[in-house]
Amino acid sequence: MVIKTRNGRNTQLWYFDQKSKTIKTKLNHQSWDIQSAGRTNNMQIWSTNSGWFQIFVYADEHFCNIENKKCLDVTGSKDVEGQSVQVYGRTNNANQRWKIIYQDKAEKIATKGLDKEFGFEINRPFYIVSNMPMKRVAECVGANNMILRRYVKNRLGQQFYFDGVSRTIRSQQWKNYALEIQSNGGSANLRMTSSINSRWW
Amino acid sequence: MFNKDGAFIVNEKGKVMDISGGLDRENQNIIIHNKHGKVNQLFDIIYEDEWKEEPIKGEFSKDFGLYVERPFYIVS
Prior knowledge:
The complex is a heterodimer of chains A (about 200) and B (about 80).
Chain A: E1 14-17, E2 22-25, E3 31-34, E4 43-46, E5 56-59, E6 62-65, E7 71-74, E8 85-88, E9 114-115, E10 120-121, E11 126-130, E12 137-140, E13 146-149, E14 160-163, E15 168-171, E16 178-181, E17 190-193
Antiparallel strand pairs in A: 1-2, 3-4, 5-6, 7-8, 9-10, 12-13, 14-15, 16-17
Chain B: E1 3-5, E2 8-10, E3 16-19, E4 28-33, E5 43-47, E6 60-61, E7 66-67
Antiparallel strand pairs in B: 1-2, 3-4, 6-7
């Protein structure tokens, strides 16, 4: 189990099953499960058996196991894409606090309009125009590095858009590619990547 | 992940989009760099549906204050 930006997929949707007393995924209807029948802190999704290691109670913003009282916990308190979720002794810290938003009450994921946090209009193609005298624009060539080029009408490699789900800058030409800093942020190179993980780089 | 912060395109570590070496030429690499605020780090986001084509012959260039390809004298 990991944390990720909301994307509306069934991998992020859960429900409480009264019959088994477990929390199940909408993906394949298996249950939350502390790995190795509760002998570890690892969380997984597993075939439903209603063992104590599959039963959790939600109270005071915590999901606590009914037997060992360990709580659902973002490992290392790291609020990053793909960070693992485990169980751990209660600390009352923010990494153990969860809010429930029922699907029928959840706001729809925005498909247009300004993302105020990021400053871009969602899904609206744009050019990145240098303020240098020639007013050249950014272009991604071959879904790779970003370079500076003169504007060419309707050249999709010069057009980008902000994806409101992954909150990344995408290429209009290679829509499955997002802008990133190469080497997990360890390089100066800017490039487009198909490995979109919404991490800081 | 990048934010638009004024004329900067910045990530959460504070690094910004930067035209390598400050060279305004074709095929120059665009990289990420510490923020220094010079013009090679400043960009406008212009949405495709608001893009204005460059002025053509006889039209006024607002950026340069001159008409395109319209002969003129410079009179003291």
